[in-house]
Structures are given as C-alpha cells and as structure tokens.
Amino acid sequence: MLEGSPWLLAHTSMLTVNQPRKISLYGNDYVMWKDIDGSIYALPNACPHMGAMLSEGWCEVESNGKSAIACPFHALRFDASGCTVLPDSNKKTLPLLKPLELIVQGDFIWTYGGYEPKIEIPSVLNEITKSYKFLGHTADRSVETDLLTMLLNMHDYNHQNGTHRDLFRITEVHFHQFVDEGHISHAYYEMPTAPYSLIEKIKKPDLLLLPTKFNAHLENHFPSFIIFYGETPLGKAAQCHFFIPEAENRTRTYVLMFAQAKHPIFMLFGKTYLNFAKVVVDQDADILSKIYPNSPQKIKLNNEVGMDWVKRNFASFPNVIEPDLSK
Ligand code: FES
Ligand SMILES: [Fe+2]
Prior knowledge:
CATH topology of the largest domain: Naphthalene 1,2-dioxygenase Alpha Subunit, Chain A, domain 1
Oligomer: single chain
Number of strands: 16
Distance between the termini: 28 Å
Strand content: 25-35%
Largest sheet: 7 strands, antiparallel
Number of domains: 2
Structural class: alpha+beta
Strand order of the largest sheet: 10-16-15-14-13-12-11
Bound molecules: FE2/S2 (inorganic) cluster, fe (ii) ion
Helix content: 10-25%
C-alpha cells in the first residue's frame, strides 16, 4: 500500500462543521471532524472503552470552544488529543487514543498515515487554487479493489471504448506524448467522439457540453492523484482524481473539480461537469468490481505506457529506476 506516500484524505469542503466522518487508511479506521474555527482532527475510530465507532457519535463544543467527539455508546467525550474526563472525576485522563497526524495545506488535508515520509507532498494543488476556482467534490466512493489495480485503471488510456462507451462514444485514441519525470508524468492524447443525434441531445441537454474531440492532458502524481486538464472555448477545468488505500483490498477515490472561466457561462455548468465526473468514476468502479485479480496478461495494447509507468513506480517505490518511459 506504498507506506511513506502522502495521501489527500479530503478537501475541507467534504467535512461539515461538527459532523464526524469515518476515514480509512492502511486498514485502520479514523474519525475525522472539523471545528467551528475550521481546525481538522482525526482519532482512531474505536472507542477505548468498549470499541464503539466514534464516527457514529457526535461532536460537542467544550468550554474552550473546541469540539470533542462523543461516543455513541456511553457518551464519553474525547478531545482532539484523545483525552477524556471520566464521570465522577474532574480531571482529564492521559491520551487514550493517538491522533492521526494531519498536514493541512489550505483546504487540503494530507497525511502519511503515521509512517515516515518517503516522498514529498506535491505543491501543484496549491498552485491550482491560485488561478482556478474550486467547483466542488464528487464521486467519493470506496471500491473493493487493491491500490495497484485502481491505479492501473486510472492510467489506462484504452478503456474509454469499453468502460466509458455509454457516455463518451470515443472512436479512437490518438496518443501524442508521454513525459516521464519519475513520480510525475504527463500524457497528451486526443480522443475523437462519435456524434450524438439531435434527438439524443434534446433528450439529454447535458450532452451539448461534450466536445466532438477530447484533448487530454493528464498530469500524474504517483501514487495519490491525477489531474485531467481540459479546455473548451468557454474555459478551462482541472479535474483531480484522488486515490487512498483504505485496506489491502479496498481503495477510495474521489474527484475535486477546479475551473477557470473565459466566459461567465462556464461556471454555470459546474454541476454538469461534476455529474460527468461522477458517471466516469461510477463506470470505473463498476469495471473494477468485474476483473479477476492476478489473471496473467497475455496481450499488450498500444498506449499502455501509463500502466507501465505505474508498474515501474510501484515495484521500485519510493525509488525511481530505469527505464525512462518518455515517448
Ligand atoms: S464504548 Fe465508547 S463510551 Fe463506552
Ligand atoms: Fe476510467
């Protein structure tokens, strides 16, 4: 599960103030919550009394203005450092839960899951927020698959005709360039689509937003996310897909969408773009649940360089070894 990599657990907009949320990483569950002042905390999810899931409890604001998490079983309250006050006592206990270390950069909540960092947190998301507007998040879901299989799917430039055939009707993939920079890579390709009929467009007006040709620039940050940059005459979008190894055989994914309008109308389509992204992720999750794990690959297609890049980086993590896959 690539311990030592940073994982983006959430964007702050994915948390509601004083509403606990369960987060999983490396087979461990945590309860995460956001204070009224925006501070974010995470504790192991099993209550140290009798093991109830704290994420099923609620937040209570303490006299110092900070929120503590209340257990749904016997209502013991744990502060952000994992201490509680037992009934009939006025004193805080020592910490009974070890907080998960979070690194919050603006709205981005990163963690190394308690492991020693082996690769740095990429700065590109902080750059994006400077010139793009945040549109929202979507498609937050946990898929029953291992991290490697999820990453292979997301760096597969040939599955549009199968997995995503219903939405896009991509006729072919024209691969232009792959730039290998170690844990970062860029893929440039074009995908012409078969046209929709007028009747289909009238039935489903969202289809009018789909271009006749997708110009794709993928910026890959191994292993935790991919940015899909798209441009239309109305504006630019940066669609960021994140991956989190929840457990050996469970991987979470979600999308954060950023946009840069050249025309004000572009921002009005925010919901529509989010919906497209959700359909894409749902289709990916669906195929991931229909693959036999460990079946030997006897056929290789063109344009599998993204997957070769994933396999190489996975096998040599955290180092990057030859060959250079640029083409
Ligand atoms: S199990 Fe949490 S207070 Fe008892
Ligand atoms: Fe896909």
